[in-house]
């Protein structure tokens, strides 16, 4: 084998190795970006599910306290449902949304206990604050 053949073989081997290394590097980088995107999507879905469940329980409690005669046992069940719906929020939502959700759940529990005697003004303000925090958390204006 003469020197030009050795150099040509060497150049080819270096080119193949460099190409394989770059392919591996770009593939790994692409995988990391894809995994990060999938993580963001999973967290978004978890937050959306937690917000939806909380609102479902919240509106059920409001409706029942407005339209039904609620026994003490039913009131306790509604209050427990509210607090249980707050749990997933505290794990997935922002601190702001979590804080307002806890306050909203506590005020809604008072509303359930007091019935029509409860002043809805504070509850309305908390609901608006939670709505705004949840939308912000989910990336909406």
Give a summary of the structure in a few sentences.
This protein is mostly helical and 141 residues long.
Features:
141 residues; single chain; mainly alpha; 4 helices
Name the quaternary structure: single chain
Helical proportion, percent range: over 70%
What percent strand?
under 5%
Helix and strand content put the structural class at: mainly alpha
- Main beta sheet: strand number and arrangement? none
Q: Note the gap between the termini.
A: 70 Å
The low-pLDDT segments are none
Q: How large is the radius of gyration?
A: 28 Å
Strand count: 0
Mean pLDDT, to the nearest integer, reads 86
* Number of helical stretches of at least 4 residues: 4
Q: Which H/E pattern describes the elements?
A: HHHH
So what's the overall shape?
rod-shaped
What's the number of structural domains?
Answer: 1
């Amino acid at each position: 084998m003469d020197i030009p053949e050795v150099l040509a073989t060497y150049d080819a081997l270096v080119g193949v190795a460099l190409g394989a290394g770059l392919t591996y590097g770009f593939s790994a980088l692409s995988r990391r970006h894809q995994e990060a995107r999938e993580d963001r999507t999973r967290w978004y879905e978890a937050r959306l599910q937690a917000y939806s469940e909380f609102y479902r329980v919240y509106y059920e409690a409001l409706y029942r306290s407005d339209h039904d005669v609620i026994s003490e046992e039913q009131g306790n069940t509604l209050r427990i449902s509210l607090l249980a719906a707050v749990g997933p929020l505290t794990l997935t939502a922002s601190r702001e949304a979590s804080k307002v959700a806890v306050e909203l759940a506590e005020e809604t529990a008072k509303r359930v206990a007091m019935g029509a005697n409860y002043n809805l003004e504070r509850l309305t303000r908390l609901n608006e604050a939670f709505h705004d925090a949840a939308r912000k958390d989910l990336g909406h204006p």
